[in-house]
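Regression report. Comparing outputs from two consecutive submissions.

Submission 1:
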Amino acid sequence: MAFLTLDGVSKFYGPMGAVIDMSLAVQRGEFVSLLGPSGCGKTTTLQMLAGFVPVTRGRITLEGRDITHLPANQRGLGIVFQSYALFPHMTVAENVSFGLEMRKIAKAERAERVQRMLSLVQLDALAGRYPRELSGGQRQRVAIARALVIEPPVLLLDEPLSNLDAKLREQMQFELRRIQRRIGTTTLMVTHDQAEALSISDRVVVMEAGRVTQVDAPLRLYEHPRSEFISGFVGKTNLLPGRVRREAQGSSVELANGLRLPVEAVGHAEGDAVRLCLRPEKLHFAADPPDSRSAVDGPDGRRAADGPDGRHAPDRLPGRIVERFFLGSQWLYRVHTELGDLEVSCANDGSAPRAEGDAVQLGWAANAARLVAADGRAAAPNA
């Protein structure tokens, strides 16, 4: 039995569904992120878990106990808000101790638990400071310590890193995961940041328009998105319109220019309108291919099928660099091709970048492409 479950949980405001039939099973000690754009229902889901927003229908259980309609102060959950919500007139130690005082924990035990928690978040030397005397990252760690010191069965995080600058935010992602692993607290985090969700979660729940669209481990979510929305929201991607073709020699996708490329088409039937998804980092310039097989070679080494005009797909896709952007660790290029404009991401190895206007040849490994339904409906993941 799962440690925490949501079974058909929904929240309606009149006829509008903020969350619709949310079902999720979370194991003890798991770190799960709710990911999606603004207005998708992820924060409402967290608020229903916390008891701040009443459930319209469905059931929430914790360790087999129904908490659907239990008041927030009786659930015993730890919560870290986006604003941290620290008491400005209290010191760091007093902020962390507050929840223990409300639970009437003995003074000696309070002091011991506060000291242990401040040591865990590396703030023991700042116990006497006030929130205004702390950096953003330090205030965030105080909020985490205050939530964890009561030893909650579940920790709820509502975009806890959104107020930090980019560098500190990245540091705190891994700090948060380190603390969670050491304590072992079951954690649910709301975020709209894809990199944040992928880097520190055991599983990611992608939400769109109040519904769950995919629940998966980060790597599988990124490599095998189940819909057009997910492929575009979780990381960068190139989406090429096409149709599935099934023949004796295997499946392929027929692209807009009449060319066909071999691709796994699990869950798609002959003639289905699809999008061919190619991540920018999976594309390469012909001079530095990561794989000896080109895009036109299937997993068994066969060449791509002929297009309707009798053409084979080219060994390389010719194009011209329209724009380039320097991102520090990588270069991002926009390349114009007969299939449309494609984004290509290349690691910055210190060598001179390619110039705008350069003619190039693009290729990709045979197993790099993924298919999703063109209308955004979930399709079986490619395997």
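Submission 2:
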Amino acid sequence: MNEYRSHLSVTTWIVLASLTIGVSLTLPERIYSISVFGSPVDFQLSSTFLAGLVALAATWAGLEAALRTHPRKDLLQHSFRFWGLPTAIVLTGAVLLPTLNNQASWIITLVLTGAVLATSMAGEYHTIDPENMSYGNARLLLNGLAYAVAAIAFILIYLSRNRSLISATLIGLTAGLLAMDLLHNNQTPTRLTILYSLLIAFILAQFTVALNYWPFASARVALILLVGFYLLVGLAQQAMRGKIGRRRTFEYLFMFMITVTVIFIFP
């Protein structure tokens, strides 16, 4: 077994064990209330939350160890750029698993979380070097996973029926993490990738606040956000390549309006 695969295997098992313990182990819960912009927000410290933190730490440490085994270490500056998608996968799994009461569904979800996490981390490894023969397939796979995770996360956030302060923040955080994964490459300065990721996160967070005033089902809102996320990422990619212009911007905005209109009209 290659060294990087060994790191990814151990990391995946630690993450799955942490998520399982978080659901199975019951610890005394503590609720802390804080005030944000004059609005009270309750923060719940539970076994699920602590297990999620352990799973995140294991993901970052394991992925970093795997990336450092790559022969092109000169391309690994700011390696946190590769953390976005795996982080979003672990967060989504940590939120989804405690809500499942059916044992079969819980086991299937846990297995899928581990499989998708391992696949994403392996894909990140193969996108370090653009000249690698596996780069194209790995990048395509990561793109598909990123949009799939975005759709699931957006639906879960809206199903929770939280206030705009919480839902918009979570949408922005998820979008920012996934955008960083979709936008990063070795030809673009890291600061530019971070800037565009933060911009996408901010726009979607503000868009979420507006959508919270509309009486639409969670799936419909999630689709609207997913389309917006896809188009914003596309615009950012074109801008980073220096190919953005009025015509292309208009095309993206026109596609967005048509898609949203279709989502609004049809049930």
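Expected: both submissions complete independently.
Actual: both completed, but the second showed a warning that disappeared on reload.
Relevant detail on submission 2: The CA atoms of residues 11 and 128 lie 19 Å apart.
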